[in-house]
Amino acid sequence: TIEIKLVTLRKLLQSKDNQAVFFYQCTSMTVSKESHKIISEYQQEEYDTFHKVDQSSIKCDCKARIFSAQGVAEQILEGHYSANLKSPFAAVDQLGDKDLRK
Q1: Under DSSP, is residue 73 helix (H, G, I), strand (E, B) or coil?
Q2: Under a CB-based contact definition with an 8 Å cutoff, are residues 85 and 56 in contact?
Q3: Rounded to an integer, what distance in angstroms lies between the CA atom of residue 83 and that of residue 73?
Q4: Residue 2 CA to chain centroid, in angstroms?
Q5: How far is CA 30 from CA 3, 39, 74, 75, 77, in A?
Q6: In angstroms, rounded to a whole number, what is the distance separating the alpha carbons of residues 79 and 35?
Q7: Which of 85, 74, 78, 7 is nearest to 47 (CA)?
Q8: How confident is the prediction along the chain (102 residues), in pLDDT tens digits per residue?
Q9: Whole-model pTM?
Q10: CA atoms within 13 A on the CB side of 52
């Protein structure tokens, strides 16, 4: 099978010096390699909160809701992870039209 995920909405909800909150909405489906038919599909809404730990690492708190193709909430997921930033690191000052320095 093949898993296909399409992000239909990505939105910056909050931006501070040491924190950023994003909202994502995506549609996922599983497709049979042999028949090319859709086996299953669902929609996911996710909130990701990124926190700056220090100059070289971040942590992320994730909360996601999974909905069936009929729009029924089926599952709530929560997760946490940390990541080390690789050097050289360039600050991101712009996201789409939004100036993150303000």
Answers
A1: strand
A2: yes
A3: 30
A4: 20
A5: 5, 5, 17, 17, 19
A6: 34
A7: 78
A8: 999 999 999 999 999 888 999 999 999 999 999 999 999 999 999 999 999 888 888 899 999 999 988 889 999 999 999 988 776 555 667 777 777 776
A9: 0.69
A10: 10
